[in-house]
């Protein structure tokens, strides 16, 4: 009942095929784990870094920082427009 005459499996010898399959399985698991890590890091990154180039040291372009300051009420509309014009002139 236990042996079927093939000489493989639990009671037989797998030979080099078993070693190769084991190594390939470990490599597959490692590749899947690395892919998951990269996917999580990519999806958790700031959207401005995915779609816009030229990010500054803190990850935001000067225009984005200026817009944030305007949105928080730190600067008024006139100052925002003046500074945006200056930024566009010096590009």
TrEMBL record:
Domain SHOCT: from-to ranges: 62-87
InterPro entries per the UniProt record, alphabetical: SHOCT (IPR018649)
Superkingdom of source: Bacteria
Keywords tagged on the record: Membrane, Transmembrane, Transmembrane helix
TM regions (residue ranges): 20-43
Name recorded for this polypeptide: SHOCT domain-containing protein
């Amino acid at each position: 009942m236990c042996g079927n005459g093939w000489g493989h499996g639990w009671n037989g010898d797998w030979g080099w095929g078993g070693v190769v399959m084991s190594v390939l399985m470990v490599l597959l698991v490692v590749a899947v784990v690395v892919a998951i890590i990269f996917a999580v890091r990519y999806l958790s990154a700031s959207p401005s870094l995915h779609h816009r180039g030229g990010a500054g040291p803190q990850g935001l372009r000067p225009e984005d920082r200026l817009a944030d300051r305007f949105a928080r009420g730190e600067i008024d509309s006139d100052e925002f427009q003046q500074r945006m014009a200056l930024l566009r002139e010096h590009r």
